[in-house]
Amino acid sequence: MIARNLRRAAIISMVPAALMLTMPGASAAGLGSLTVVSGPSPFAGCTLGVAPGATNFLNAEVEPWVAVNPANTENVIGAWQQDRWSDGGAHGLVVGYTTNGGRTWSETAQPFSACAPGGPSRYDRASDPWVSIGPDGTAYSVAISFQGVGPDNAVLASTSADGGATWTAPKALIEDLVTTQYFNDKESVTADPVIAGTAYAVWDRLTSPVGNPKADAHAFAYTGPTWFSKTTNGGKSWSTAKVIVPTANEQQTIGNQIVVDPRTGTLYDFFDLILGSGPNGTDQLHGYNVAYSKSTDGGATWTAPQVVAKLASVGVTDPSTGTAVRTGDIIPEPAIDPATGQLYVVWQDSRFNGGHYDEVAISTSSDGGGTWSAPVRANSPHGVPAFNPSVQVSGSSVGITYADFRSLTPGNTSTLPTDYWFTSSPVGPLAITGETHMYDTYDMMTAPIAEGYFVGDYQGLAALGSGFASLSVRTNSGNLANRTDAVFRAITP
Fold this sequence. Notes:
- By secondary structure, this protein is an all-beta fold.
- Helix content is 1%, strand content 44%.
- The protein is built from 1 helix and 34 strands.
- It has one helix spanning 2-7; strands at residues 30-31, 35-36, 56-68, 76-85, 90-98, 106-109, 125-133, 139-146, 153-160, 171-176, 182-191, 199-207, 223-224, 226-231, 242-245, 251-260, 267-275, 287-295, 306-310, 316-317, 324-326, 333-336, 343-349, 359-365, 376-377, 386-394, 397-404, 417-426, 433-437, 442-443, 453-454, 460-464, 467-475, 484-492.
- The longest helix is centred in the first third of the chain and has 6 residues, at 2-7.
- It is globular.
- The protein starts with a helix and ends with a strand.
- It comes from Sinomonas cellulolyticus.
- This is Exo-alpha-sialidase.
- Residues 1-28 form the signal peptide.
- Keywords: Signal.
């Protein structure tokens, strides 16, 4: 897919550094019951989206996100890709929802692809699920919808007023039709935590010359600015999409996510700023950078990007075989403390081991992004990759989830044992202690294959009371008819 290829075009600059290591202590979090949220695919009969050489992994769920209803914390909504394709996207997106705090779940297809009831006939695939819930209980969801064969693609938005059971016909925030020059990617939506009916969507729009046959010789010419749209009427309409982070040639953003300071209304958009051209200074090095831009007027104007830290990911592979594992290697994940406005961001980084493999880095700012703490390791070090971190603030705790390969024994090339973990720090200065095993070890080799073994570029974590709600995907080890499932667990630090 154009999005994945272009985002890799930037020059990676590694900056190993010896930084403070954070070691887990003996304390452990409390875990609620583990519940399988996903069921058999509602798209099993769909034959759309086929492309030459592509494989569809029926019943495979990947890339979950989760939100808790602030008006009723018993209502939790998660979304994921359903029936992943090997070359991008899925048959469609599915929502799981609960009204009793996660004890039981129902699910429904979202109207983001032609495989789903009420979905747009133009788009036979969908990807990048995201959901956020406002203070009045309105749930907002967005998706990338596109064609398996053909250039048409869009960012679509839908809402639910009944806890996730039903979803409105989708609204197009942007559509690019006919030409292969544009691809919209990695969208997210954030409901304003204070202003009912208001939500903010962001994404990157990759622009390349490939739509012009005379430009083939300039394959590395591309750009990918951040785009923004806003609703103030509960998703009935959205503002005309606009660029909020412009990028020059051979520069782009990816992984845009907004967090909102409920005390001031300030919006912070975090992203990976990829610089393949321009000045090579101390603040903006070529390659990947954890960065943010902020708005103090509801998204009308935005600051220039500010770099938090270098993002020194080297990607993830099976330590025994070298086989690729596709992860959120270049996607930072932010969070904000609603009580104080303190910011946190996690990402995959190899700086703690001399650039050999990815681990989890975290940095924090207590002055609105003016200054940031030196990145420290958030995972327990075991000499193997740690990946797909998520972060949230709830009550007095900063919670972090991630996966790693610590259970892999030397010489094992027949399976890839994978573990999922929770760790935390008190709010304020980082002091990461303790870790909790979220569920039994699973075999990553059972995962769908999409540029490597793939359970998602991200996993879901949300604040739930004074604890957390986790929605993640794990494999059903060895079961090729039902490779993965989305699972829910409540966490008490």
